[in-house]
UniProtKB/TrEMBL annotation, chain A:
Role this protein plays: Plasma membrane Na(+)/H(+) antiporter. Exchanges intracellular H(+) ions for extracellular Na(+) in 1:1 stoichiometry, playing a key role in salt and fluid absorption and pH homeostasis. Major apical Na(+)/H(+) exchanger in kidney and intestine playing an important role in renal and intestine Na(+) absorption and blood pressure regulation.
Ranges of Basic residues composition bias in the record: 685-694, 853-873
Transmembrane segment boundaries: 58-76, 88-108, 114-133, 145-168, 180-202, 209-233, 253-277, 346-366, 372-393, 405-426, 438-458
Protein name: Sodium/hydrogen exchanger
Keyword terms, alphabetized: Antiport, Cell membrane, Endosome, Ion transport, Membrane, Phosphoprotein, Signal, Sodium, Sodium transport, Transmembrane, Transmembrane helix, Transport
Keyword Membrane: yes
GO biological process terms, semicolon-separated: regulation of intracellular pH; sodium ion import across plasma membrane
Similarity field: Belongs to the monovalent cation:proton antiporter 1 (CPA1) transporter (TC 2.A.36) family.
Membrane topology per record: Multi-pass membrane protein
CC annotations in GO: brush border membrane; early endosome membrane; recycling endosome membrane
Record organism: Rousettus aegyptiacus
From TrEMBL, chain B:
Gene Ontology biological process terms in this record: protein transport
The family this protein is said to belong to: Belongs to the calcineurin regulatory subunit family. CHP subfamily.
CDD domains documented for this protein: EFh
InterPro entries documented for this protein: Calcineurin_B_homologous, EF-hand-dom_pair, EF_Hand_1_Ca_BS, EF_hand_dom
PROSITE patterns attached to this UniProt entry: EF_HAND_1, EF_HAND_2
Keywords: Calcium, Cell membrane, Cytoplasm, Lipoprotein, Membrane, Metal-binding, Myristate, Nucleus, Phosphoprotein, Protein transport, Repeat, Transport
Keyword Nuclease: no
Protein's name in the database: Calcineurin like EF-hand protein 2
Gene Ontology CC: cytoplasm; nucleus; plasma membrane
Gene Ontology MF: a single term: calcium ion binding
Domain EF-hand, first and last residues per copy: 109-144, 150-185
Length: 898, 194
């Protein structure tokens, strides 16, 4: 119809469509106006073209589409995105689009308006940042962050403003209608590091976590300072420079505390509300994610309404609620929240940068003053660097993790300015600030400079500063393996030395949190997840127990438990899947080899190709792919675009299972050494055999990641073909798990028993008198038989099985039979009813009885066959009747099975 | 951190000299020690360390815990605790220079760092990492997707690569040699343990 503009060749269809549509109303307006009159006479019309009806949302949707499509375009080429930050690309795209639109009809109708930015674009980004904030890291560096955010921002604002004013007085800038207060106002809005820009750039530059959190945290928390400085100076200007009194300045300082603390408080209150609400959403799962967004958004709006710092409010809302919300909502809801939040934030970011580009295409706002612009650039860079160095010097006297020179360089250089500054400057009232346009143009230049230039160069800079290991050499197998081992060692030592900002306050807080907050804000079932991993383990055990007994019911007896026909189990279980795995992975490797995708391969290709080399390649690749990643690598701090927590959890669970299994074995064997003299020899043998079998276990496991989908089926088949043996498989680990839990949670069990009715209690503790098995136990549990005095090993005790090297032997005296057992016995009557309550909550009465049976079975079987298989039974859950299958709370933690 | 609390640490001064930790760092470690020692016994047992949740998901967690309890000890007191951690202190240049020839090598020297790693592998303490021992570590560190055969071949290869005298095992010297190009000083140091 009226496609007048000539769209750039690259931007293709969406743009053409957009332009076409922009022209539509004009072209159509007349037609419609005239046809309206006819309509009345002609009566009903089958099809009407109502552009005005949809104009606004339509254009918005189109812009979003354009931005998103552009993003796809950027990522088509890895080369471009790895060099140029996406934010810079988007700004350029915005400039191009804006230019085209402007060329088309000479109006700059699309700009980043403060309303849109503050109400719709900023909240998702900040909420996302808060909700996924690595809390521990954030709070351990809170002091540093606050100093940079408050003192640093004030420093930047003051020095930049004053220096510019000084230069202005010298007459270098020529004739401007501008005063000291205007300069200070400008300084305050240009001083703040922008969270959106910082995130966008730092996400692609992988700096160490401390550095990242400091810059990122600063950019979030300096909002309060910016808001206060901005409003203070704005009102001073409105008041007139000469009328400002000391009282006003004091008021300004007071208002800073009001704004920041008030904003934080609002955030915390709403976080509390949100956590509380999600506690009761059990029956309305489907709208659970909605609460997260709506309530956080309300916190933002509320603090905006009260003229407090809205960014602080929503940040702290996210930070404070994350723990409770994540515990309360179902796994599916959590995933929904995660993806929705990332999507919104990522989308908002895209739009912001694109509009930053588009907004610049408007000749009206441009007023150039070379001296002013250049000096601003110089001043903000220099003063930021000075500020960082000074503050770091002070901080390093108190900080555990010293900030080194390199860190300071990155911090100074990473001070990116962004959309917040732009929107604030656009908000200025031209009648009060006469040189608004100059300020706007300068702000735009500053933003472009920092986002594009610094964004482009920061990556090479970071790499260049760490130039030490520039030697790019294929590491030898030894180096690779040991290097990874060192990483693990380091992270373990870090955990042991507790050096990641471990302190007294955190202990206090976690106590308070456990005793009060979690009780109020978390579902009962979620409360026991003090330790996520332990919790997962506990859940698995429970399920195993239930399915185990149900299996017995299905067969009509629990006799199968006693049948020791487990020898061929191992083969049945792993024998089948293994060949296929090998094939799969090798063919995979070979394919990889051809395409030479893997870095290993590239460097290897230069070598002479021989069979030996191919093997090497395979080996390297295997290691590369399957070595467990150390914590530093896989716990990616915060990423807008990546969502891979599942991988980490999988790895965690896998390692955890192994660790526990090992500990369990040694624990049990040591215990047996005490309790079961007669059987010791036999058990010892069994242990040995067991160990041999176990040795093949970890790597004989099904390749879960790859074969996840057919895994279930396989397991089911297995079960059918070999119903006798599968169940036996998991006994020992789960009982082991129970033992371990008893051990681990021992010190916390007392308060959990009194407070949280039994849901915190490991199974062993649940044996109340009335549930003691009627049948004479063939193998009574060891503890009751242990001598009452804490003698570690009675004379004539058998040699400890080989595995007893580790915890077990020490663990035993530690159990302090005197107290440990007494408490067990003493608590049992109490625990009984508590358990009853717990179970009734958990499932129908039938399940109760069953679980009791399960417990009996376990206690009897605890030490019999320490064998470390467990998965089959998990899958068996599927074959159970629904009522036993899903204790209500187990559903909430459904993620557990694998 | 009041200065009065430093007197709680037994033998603080000699310990500081021995390990090279700063006063503040020692104090922090002491706090940590007390914190791990939940029942105020004055020593730690394996369970105390095993209670650290993050270690349970560390593939080498148990081995590292074991290294705190050398020679079958059941407990570790604070000096022992600190001595192990001292291996991970960053190497300080002047400390290395001012050390007299007759003074013992500090815990955080390259060799001692390596030795610490070596003894994690060398379970039977025969001064050599056998193929079996290598395999065990590998098994800990590699995901379940890798088959036993693959693992064995990797372990074989690793040992062969480092094994120079052809005895089918890696001695400490061979171990150190195979890693000579690696920046152990940096890789085995924790910045915060100053």
């Amino acid at each position: 119809m009226s496609r007048r503009g000539a769209p750039g060749p690259g931007w293709g269809l969406p743009l053409a469509l957009l332009l076409a549509l922009r022209e539509v109303p004009r072209a159509l307006g007349v037609e419609q106006g005239s046809s309206d009159a006819q309509d009345a006479s002609q009566g009903f019309e089958v099809v009407t073209f109502k552009w005005h009806h949809v104009q606004d949302p339509y254009i918005i949707a189109l812009w979003i589409l354009v931005a998103s499509v552009a993003k796809i375009g950027f990522h088509l080429s890895h080369k471009v995105t790895s060099v140029v930050p996406e934010s810079a690309l988007l700004i350029v795209l915005g400039l191009v689009l804006g230019g085209i639109v402007w060329a088309a009809n000479h109006i700059a109708s699309f700009t980043l308006t403060p309303t849109v930015f503050f109400f719709y674009l900023l909240p998702p980004i900040v909420l996302d940042a808060g909700y996924f904030m690595p809390n521990r890291l954030f709070f351990s560096n809170l002091g540093t962050i606050l100093l940079y955010a408050v003192v640093g921002t004030v420093w930047n604002a003051a020095t930049t403003g004053l220096s510019l004013y000084g230069v202005f007085l010298s007459g270098l800038m020529g004739d401007l209608d501008i005063g000291l207060l205007d300069f200070l106002l400008f300084g305050s809005l240009i001083a703040a590091v922008d969270p959106v820009a910082v995130l966008a750039v730092f996400e692609e530059v992988h700096v160490n976590e401390v550095l990242f959190i400091i810059v990122f945290g600063e950019s979030l928390l300096n909002d309060a300072v910016t808001v206060v400085l901005y409003t203070v100076f704005e009102s001073f200007i409105a008041l007139g420079g000469d009328k400002v009194t000391g009282v006003d300045c004091v008021k300004g300082i007071v208002s800073f505390f009001m704004v920041s603390l008030g904003g934080t408080l609002v955030g915390v209150l709403f976080a509390f509300l949100l956590s509380l609400v999600t506690r009761f959403t059990k029956h309305v799962r489907i709208i659970e994610p909605g609460f997260v967004f709506v309530i956080s958004y309300l916190s933002y709006l509320t603090s905006e309404m009260l003229s407090l710092s809205s960014i602080l409010a929503i940040t702290f809302c996210g930070i404070c609620c994350q723990k409770y919300v994540k515990a309360n909502i179902s796994e599916q809801s959590a995933t929904t929240v995660r993806y929705t939040m990332k999507m919104l934030a990522s989308g908002a970011e895209t739009i912001i940068f694109m509009f930053l580009g588009i907004s610049a295409v408007d000749p009206i706002i441009w007023k150039w003053n070379t001296a002013f612009v250049l000096l601003t650039l110089v001043f903000i860079s220099v003063y930021r660097a000075i500020g960082v160095v000074l503050q770091t010097w002070v901080l390093n006297r108190y900080r555990m993790v010293q900030l080194e020179v390199i860190d300071q360089v990155v911090m100074s250089y990473g001070g990116l300015r962004g959309a917040v500054a732009f929107v604030l400057v656009v908000l200025l009232d031209e009648s009060k600030v006469k040189e608004k346009n100059l300020l706007v143009s300068t702000t735009i230049i500053v933003i472009y400079f920092t986002v594009i230039f610094q964004g482009l160069t920061i990556k090479p800079l970071v790499q260049w500063l760490k130039v030490k290991k520039s030697e790019h050499r294929e590491p030898k197998l030894n180096e690779k393996l040991h290097g990874r081992a060192f990483d693990h060692i380091l992270s373990a030592i870090e955990d042991i030395s507790g050096q990641i900002g471990h302190n007294y306050l955190r202990d206090k807080w976690s106590n308070f949190d456990r005793k009060f907050l979690s009780k109020i804000l978390m579902r009962r079932s979620a409360q026991k997840s003090r330790d996520r991993i332990l919790n997962v383990f506990h859940e698995l055990n429970l399920k195993d127990a239930i399915s185990y007994v149900a299996e017995g019911e299905r067969r009509g007896s629990l006799a199968f438990i006693r049948s020791p026909s487990t020898e061929n189990m191992v083969n049945v279980d792993f024998g089948t899947p293994r060949p296929s795995t090998v094939e799969a992975s090798i063919s995979y490797l070979l394919r990889e080899n051809v395409s030479a995708v893997c870095l290993d391969m590239q460097s290897l290709e230069q070598r002479r190709r021989s069979i030996r080399d191919t093997e090497d390649t395979v080996t390297h690749h295997t290691l590369q792919q399957y070595l467990y990643k150390p914590r530093q690598e896989y716990k990616h701090l915060y990423s807008r675009h990546e969502l891979t927590p599942e991988e980490d959890e999988k790895q965690d669970k896998e390692i955890f299972r192994r660790t526990m299994r090992k500990r369990m074995e040694s624990f049990k064997s040591a215990k047996l050494g005490i309790g079961q003299n007669k059987k010791a020899a036999k058990l010892y043998k069994r242990e040995r055999a067991q160990k041999r079998r176990n040795s093949s276990v970890p790597n004989g496991k099904l390749p879960m990641e790859n074969l996840m989908h057919n895994f279930t089926i396989k397991e089911k088949d297995l079960e059918l073909s070999d119903p006798e043996e599968n169940p036996d498989h998991d006994v020992e680990e789960m009982s082991g798990g129970i033992e371990f839990l008893a051990n681990v949670t021992r010190d916390t069990a007392t308060d959990s028993l009194s407070g949280d009715t039994g849901s915190d209690t490991p199974l062993t503790r649940r044996r109340s008198p009335r549930e003691v098995p009627p049948a004479p136990e063939k193998r009574p549990r060891a503890p009751p038989q242990a001598p009452p005095t804490p003698g570690p090993v009675p004379p004539g005790a058998p040699p400890a099985p080989p595995t007893a090297r580790s915890p077990a032997r020490t663990a035993l005296p530690d159990r302090e039979p005197g107290t440990g057992l007494a408490s067990e016995a003493g608590l049992a009557p109490e625990a009984g009813p508590a358990l009853g309550a717990g179970l009734e909550r958990r499932g129908p009465p039938g399940a109760h009885a069953r679980s009791a049976a399960a417990r009996r079975v376990h206690s009897r079987r605890s030490f019999q066959r320490p064998r470390a298989r467990r998965r089959p039974a998990l899958l068996k859950l599927a074959s159970l009747q629904p009522s036993y299958h899903a204790p209500p709370h187990a559903l909430e933690q459904e993620e557990t099975p694998l | 951190m009041g200065s009065g609390s430093s007197s709680e640490i037994p033998d603080a001064d000699s310990l500081r000299r021995e390990t090279g930790f700063s006063q503040a760092c020692l104090l922090r470690l002491y706090r940590r020690f007390q914190n791990l020692d939940s029942s105020q016994k004055g020593y730690l047992r394996r369970v105390d360390l095993q209670r650290i949740g993050a270690l349970a998901v560390n593939p080498l967690g148990d081995r590292i815990i074991d290294s705190f309890f050398p020679e079958g000890n059941l407990t570790v007191d604070f000096p022992g605790f600190v001595r192990v951690l001292a291996h991970f202190r960053p190497v300080d240049e002047e400390g290395a220079r001012t050390r007299g020839p007759d003074e013992p090598e500090p815990f955080n020297s390259r060799m001692n760092k390596l030795r610490f790693a070596f003894q994690l592998y060398d379970l039977d303490r025969d001064g050599k990492i056998s193929q079996q021992e290598m395999l065990q570590v590998l098994r800990l560190m590699v995901g379940v997707q890798v088959t036993e055969e693959q693992l064995e071949s990797i372990a074989d290869r690793t040992v062969q690569e480092a094994d120079e005298d052809g005895d089918g095992a890696v001695s400490f010297l061979e171990f150190a040699k195979s890693l000579e190009k690696m920046d152990i000083e940096q890789k085995m140091s924790i910045r915060i343990l100053k």
